[in-house]
Amino acid sequence: MAELSEVDAWLSALVENLQPTARKKMLRELAQEVRRNQQANIRLQRDPDGQAFSPRKVTARSKKGRIKRQMFSKLRRAKYLKATADTSTATVGFISQVQHTARVHHYGLRDRVRRNGPMAQYPARRLLGVNDSVETLTKDTLIRFLSR
Predict the structure, then answer these.
(1) Fewer Cβ in 10 A, N or C end of the chain?
(2) In this structure, what DSSP letter does residue 123 have?
(3) Global confidence as pTM
(4) How far apart are CA 92 and CA 31, in angstroms?
């Protein structure tokens, strides 16, 4: 464990030695790669841990053989899922217009189905999160920029 903290301190010092423009470029690339990873997870209908989303509730209106649109197909677009970076941080998140919907589904909260409609308890479907592939992306991006 002590070796890991030494490596972390060493890497932090190397990153701090990068010029602010290079650091911003590195963090922007990292945020874009993480966004692509999160979009792929949403497209494959799985949470960051790799478990499948809980399926939609079967209703009397659903017909056998009917093909529905995938869940969150619009939320995963770059229009709504933004990757931003500055000289010290990189963030991936939803824009304010869709944050409420994303939060309700991510945490499995209770919300109205439509305006003035009935309340529903949504199952938790984690949309964003850190997993092994995100950590690998981070390490690879850091090594690529430091080796230049």
Answers:
(1) N
(2) P
(3) 0.82
(4) 6
